Amino acid sequence: MLMRTSPTPVLDAMRLLPFYSGRVAVARLGVIGLLAILMVACATKTRAPVDDRTAPSATIVTSTPGPAPVTPAEVESRTPTYTVKRGDTLYQIALDHGLDYKDLAAWNSLENPNKILVGQVLRVTAPGDNSTAATGVTTAPLKSQPAVTEAKPGAGAAVVPPPASPAARNADNYKSSPKAVKEPYSEQAMRDVARSAQAPPEVVASAAPATAAKPDAPRVAPPATETEDDDKLDWVWPAKGKVVVGFSETANLKGIDIAGAAGDPVIASAAGKVVYVGNGLRGYGKLVIVKHNKTWLTAYAHNREILVKEGQQVTKGQRIAEMGNTDADSVKLHFEIRRLGKPVDPARYLPAG
Q1: pTM
Q2: Which of 26, 206, 252, 290 is the most exposed place for a label (fewest CB within 10 A)?
Q3: CATH number of 72-133
Q4: What pLDDT, in 10s, does the model give residues 97-134?
Q5: How far is 306 from 213, CA to CA, in rounded Å?
């Protein structure tokens, strides 16, 4: 007797097959989707936008410092001086510095020009005249840090706020980091990530502090001891005759000697003012000194007679003395040209012939 198997279990399995297949498919799709999301999240490196919250800097205002105050002691120390030595006279000191002896006496409050003491210190420039040319000293403003001032709001510049306190930093409105924004995965996003990895980092422009204007460099005045006009003198020979002694620095011959006869005319080699007449300089006899400008003066020595007075203005070629042999062994004119008090060779300036 054959037994028929009931088809119920098979039918039941066939009925349940769609149910289990759906569950497995759903689970499988869930796992695949989760892996895809993780891969996109790992691969996506989008730049987070950066908010520039830097406050504009305040304008830096610099104040140009003035020159440092000079004390009377410093002014006195910068003043050119001369210490009197044995055998000096005020007239010789004035001649050696290219000065009028009366000015030298006045600057040093000397009532008697013939009375100076060994070791006495004399100033050889006018009071208050401490120029660079006379002293060799220059003054410049002291370097100091530029002063920073807060610009007024109305002036168009923002004022820098004070640094935030710790309490303020913990406030709700204080953001210590930029916001991060998530973007969904896409091929465009992947291309953007690749380009950003190769591109250089972006520099965010911020308000830079205004550049402080540099103060103008102090202007240095040209030396006051010499100008171009001072050197443009038209010289003439002070006397007619033969040059018997020439100029020599090594032999201490400060001028030239021109031989002649007693009474021969001695004339001014250039226009100027007579600043000395007398015999107060040893070795010069009766002497005339003419100051032509701030740079030049001339000396005429060993005269027999002097025809001009101190303070008198003379013209080029004007007769100022008669040749003689005072304090000399023969009749001659000793003639000197001095530039800023220093003797120079007259042959370099007098016309040829």
Answers
A1: 0.53
A2: 252
A3: 3.10.350.10
A4: 999 999 999 999 999 988 999 999 999 998 876 553 44
A5: 64
